[in-house]
C-alpha cells in the first residue's frame, strides 16, 4: 500500500508520539488489510461488543504487532472481546460481508475519513449532514493520523470542549 521508505517514516513517527505518551507501538513491517477486522466489527456492533472488539483489535495491531489478517489472531481477539470465536471467523465468509464493507467505505467517505486513525470531535448535537455551525460557534474537527496530544487538545477546543479541573 505504501513504499517501504514511507512505511519506515510512518512507523518512526508512531513510535516517537507513542513514546512521548508512554504508549508502546510495535507496528508490523507491512500495512495489513483491515477488511477482516472491519467485518468482525459489524458482528461485534450487532452483539453490543463493538468497544471491546475495537480495543482488542487496535491493541493487537498497534501495540502488539499481531497480524490482524490472520484468522487465528482474529479468533483470539474475538474471545478477548467476548464474542464467539467460531461465529466471528465464520462471519468473514458470510455472503453479506462484501456489501457491509462497501457500506462502511461509503459511510467513511461521507464523514471524510482519509486515513487511520481518524478522530472526530463534534459539537454537541451536530452530525455530518448538518450545515456547518455559524462562525464563532464550536466547529466539527477531524484529526487524521498519529498527532501530538497538543493537536488533539486544540481540535477538541475548536469543537467546543472545555478543559476539566484537576
Quick recap:
With 166 residues, the chain is mainly α. 51% of the residues lie in helices and 5% in strands. The chain is globular and about 50 Å long.
Account of the 3D structure:
The chain is mainly alpha-helical. The chain folds into three domains: 1-31, no CATH class; 32-111; 112-166, no CATH class. Helix content is 51%, strand content 5%. It contains seven helices and two strands; from the N terminus they run ααααααββα. The protein has a two-stranded antiparallel sheet. The model has no long low-confidence stretch (mean pLDDT 88).
Helix-strand pattern: HHHHHHEEH
Unreliable runs: none
Number of helices: 7
Structural class call reads mainly alpha
Using only C-alpha atoms, the radius of gyration works out to: 18 Å
- Alpha carbon gap, first and last residue: 43 Å
Q: Quick one: biggest sheet?
A: 2 strands, antiparallel
Q: How are strands sequenced across the largest beta sheet?
A: 1-2
